[in-house]
Prior knowledge:
This protein has helices at residues 22-34, 39-49, 55-69, and strands at residues 5-11, 14-20. It is globular. It is α+β, with helices and mostly antiparallel strands.
Amino acid sequence: MARLKKRSILLAGHATSLALEPEFWAVLEDMAAAERLSLAGLIARLDEGRQGGPLASACRVAALEYVRAR
């Protein structure tokens, strides 16, 4: 299993860090490019739309849904 890669992101004016496997970061970067968003913009959108639970989980689920839809 790949090691987690931690990135710092500004969400709603607050700095936070998010740790995901490199494979998930790659898919999120593809999603952001496809939607013409920055990676931080995409993650902010995912953060706003989640129904509780960890942000990392919401990002993983969104990445899986994106890959399945392709």
